[in-house]
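User: Hello, can you help with two protein structures?

Assistant: Certainly.
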Amino acid sequence: MRLNIFKKLIFIFLMATALMLICPADAFAQPLQVPQIDLQIGGDGEDDPESLVGFLQLLLVMALLTLAPAFVVLMTSFTRIVIVLSFTRNAMATQQIPPNQVLIGLALFLTFFVMQPAINVINDTAVQPYLEGEIEQELALEVGAEPLKEFMFYHTREKDLALFVNMADLEAPETQEDVPLFVLVPAFVISELKTAFQMGFMLYVPFLIIDMVVASTLMSMGMFMLPPVIVSMPFKLLLFILVDGWHLVVSSLLESFN
């Protein structure tokens, strides 16, 4: 039951993402027409267990739809990107500059940029055929999930994947198709976390050197009451500007997914 709900949420995410990217810009200028919705339990006064089960499943899916953003951030490149951008801001010690809205917005657009090839494949092979009635929902889900699975497999370490396969008491998979999504997704997430922290560490090193040099200079001058962070921050910003830091960070992020 939970696996079916998991598949339905992924299918809704795939459909919504592809429709947003392929929908023409003038479509949003049309007046919004709200269709009439009539929810009814039972069928013509007679007991209808199948319709009741379907209605309850619909309510459950709608209730769990709030978890859709979690699927977006955990099954794409968003996790690595937003963590590295946060490390960059913390290394410069600029507090809330850039603000969280800017970092998250930049991470979302970079995510769409990285995932664009996979989204195009999903739209061509799953979304459009499903909307035209050529394939059923189950087949559209299986076909649409393949590009995401290939992306996650490419960036998942074998050690992390083996961990969740063993914890789930599954047989050793022979092919990628034998690995279910509920095993692949957490393995992909912890692999992304490790990669993001490695990149964050490399970002911290030059700024840490500046902090050490400034602190040593202030101590040698006897200025113990002046916080080194206040003096080192302008030098950090100057270094970041001279090396075109945002260009280097973004280019390194994009190249890490190739």
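That covers the first. Now for the second protein you mentioned:
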Amino acid sequence: MAFVALAISVVVGACAGGNATATNALTPTPVAATPVSTLAPSASATGSGTATASSTPASGVPNFKRIYVIVMENKAYGSIVGSNSAPYLNSLIARYGQLTNLYAETHPSEPNYIALTSGGLQGTNSDGAYNLGVPNLFDQIEASGRTWHVYAQGYPGGCYTGALAGAVADGPGAVGEYVRKHNPAISYTSISGNPARCANITKLTGFDPAAADFEMIIPNQINDMHSSSVEAGDAFLKGFVPQITSSPAFADSVLFITWDEGIPNDKGGGHIATIVVSPNMTPGSRFEGPSTHYSMLRTIELAWGMPLLGEAQKASTITLPY
């Protein structure tokens, strides 16, 4: 089996505390957004939004057919890896691979989602409602001639920019609330201000693993472990992930399952699990070097020959056997 260098950078974000209680309502109930902050790239922001095409080095990263990213919430590495509460996740680790030394960058949640998709914190420091006019991964993907789709469980649709929406039944797993802070695409004005583009954000019902080249899956606050247990999130993933891995669309593709933050606050945002799934991966693969979410962004950009955004230019390259 050929060994291909896979560049991954992972920055894990922190998620705000506080539990959301799921209800059985079947219609989203929009809730007013928190005060909006409109931020443009700033030299003082950690990791500017500047894309530098010349910084992209030669790379052995596979030209993946499709890339999938699932972001879970608020659980430390030790709560997942080797835990009896996460049998499905540990079966993926054994069959595929994982990163053992990945740390989140900060707390709370939202800045880490922004880092993952733009290469910097962009001045964000809370779980607020941000309108960011910065280069981002979604823009890059379209510019490269590829497509993207965000499946946000419980998302009301229609370019909805509210802080949260009431709990609804939407695809596999438990009923739970949608929250804006976990959906990075809606924080970029190039998307939120363009109905045709924010139509690429939909509910999880109707998930299609072949719908786009890049697909980000954002579970609700119960299924992502934010306001529930490791067992609940593991059960959701057991019901959902096979829709990807058993599909013909997954050939020559990769799936990343990561978390936004760990507890305690080691190295900023805590130590988190990140699982890497690809059809021909050597079982039990490990990468033990230091990594962050910026490496994941870097991996995607290198795989598809796109410029490196912000901190992805300096992120570590993670190698795994494929």
